[in-house]
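Need residues for this backbone.
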């Protein structure tokens, strides 16, 4: 759903000329070419931002010509960040731990009594690192209908948790790892219960305002340009769906060329603390840098955040901490998160010291599920990370 699990399960040939952002003169030709290849392979649009800590950041925006009727994509556009949201939520939770307002060992039942079965055996830490065993509510059939926009009713956080816990847990608390959006909706409610403030206000007061992130907020807000997002239409999405998704699943939205629908205004009520943040590549880079450089958390808690567990076996290059991923790339290890919500895929990383940052934001999830666009997008991410780390861009596979 609103995030990583759907994209992990995922995994139009379209020739087009892209649109360059105003600052693309700073972009190395290979990186700009790879961004263009993602669009040429079928993705509606892509934003790349790389800051190697030594000068003017690189910013690139490329889009398929047919998308220009909706808007002209720019590197400064706001973007739905999906599960990158989890890093901000985890930061707020760990700040509350630093303030002795809650503990990592607290059972969730202490804060949300009666809401989660076996809640006294599930700790805050287990929610943060996805070892709780809670079923991912995104895969509940009713929630999936809302996630794809077929159902327009508004879901509350408590309703999302109820949808998750009506399914059997994946395993006993602490006995394994399974990525679940249910964990982070529960954490959002814990933060609200511990403070008496809404999660959106906590993120603004504790993160966005101190860093002057003017384009970063939880949920919809007026102002700024939101990049349009797209998914393959009902006639094209069937072969791209992961096993287990009901036949006929498709995204709602106005029809667009090249076999897409516009999902920009789709129902977002299933996201919230699991994936509801809107931001820009520039804002998120400032957040990632501040977090990893120690500006938000005491050193001991930043160490806790970077204490990881293995993710699914098919992703040996990724380990999960407390709302933060450790990712091994061809050019070195980076920290951050990825995220997916309808029409939006994002990868945001920094080096271990928070001095260098990279973002690759792509205007689709399932538009990257076919081999050609998936390979092109991965090549772009690898190249952007290598550029950030000052390493040569790896040669294309094959």
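Answer:
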């Amino acid at each position: 759903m609103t995030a990583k699990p759907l994209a992990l399960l995922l995994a139009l040939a379209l020739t087009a000329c892209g649109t360059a952002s105003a600052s693309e003169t700073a972009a190395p030709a290979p990186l700009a070419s790879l961004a263009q290849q993602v669009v040429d392979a079928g993705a509606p649009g892509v934003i790349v931002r790389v800051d190697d800590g030594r000068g003017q950041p690189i910013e690139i925006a490329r889009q398929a010509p047919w998308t220009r009727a909706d808007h002209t994509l720019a590197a400064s556009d706001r973007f739905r960040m999906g599960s990158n949201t989890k890093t901000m939520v985890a930061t707020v939770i760990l700040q509350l731990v630093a303030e002795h307002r809650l503990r990592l060992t607290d059972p969730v039942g202490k804060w949300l009594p009666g809401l989660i079965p076996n809640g006294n055996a599930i700790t805050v830490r287990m929610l943060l690192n996805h070892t709780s065993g809670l079923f991912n509510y995104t895969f509940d059939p009713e929630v999936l209908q809302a996630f794809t926009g077929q159902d327009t009713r508004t879901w509350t956080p408590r309703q999302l948790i109820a949808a998750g816990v009506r399914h059997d847990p994946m395993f006993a608390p602490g006995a394994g790892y399974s990525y679940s959006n249910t964990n982070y909706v529960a954490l959002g409610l814990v933060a609200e219960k511990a403070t008496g403030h809404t999660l959106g206000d906590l993120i603004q007061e504790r993160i966005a305002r101190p860093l002057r992130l003017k384009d970063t907020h939880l949920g919809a807000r007026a102002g700024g340009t939101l990049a349009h997002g797209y998914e393959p239409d009902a006639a094209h999405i069937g072969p791209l769906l992961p096993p287990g998704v009901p036949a006929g699943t498709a995204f709602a939205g106005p029809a667009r060329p090249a076999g897409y629908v516009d999902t920009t205004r789709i129902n977002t009520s299933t996201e919230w603390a699991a994936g509801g943040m809107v931001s820009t590549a520039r804002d998120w880079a400032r957040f990632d840098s501040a977090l990893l450089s120690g500006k938000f958390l005491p050193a001991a808690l930043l160490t806790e955040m970077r204490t990881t567990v293995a993710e699914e076996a098919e992703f040996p290059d990724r380990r999960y901490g407390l709302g933060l991923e450790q990712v091994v790339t061809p050019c070195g290890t980076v920290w951050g998160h990825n995220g997916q919500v309808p029409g939006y895929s994002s990868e945001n990383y920094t080096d271990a010291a928070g001095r260098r940052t990279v973002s690759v934001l792509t205007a689709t999830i399932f538009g990257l599920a076919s081999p050609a666009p998936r390979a092109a997008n991965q090549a772009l991410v690898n190249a952007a990370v290598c550029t950030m780390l000052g390493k040569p861009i790896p040669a294309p596979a094959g």
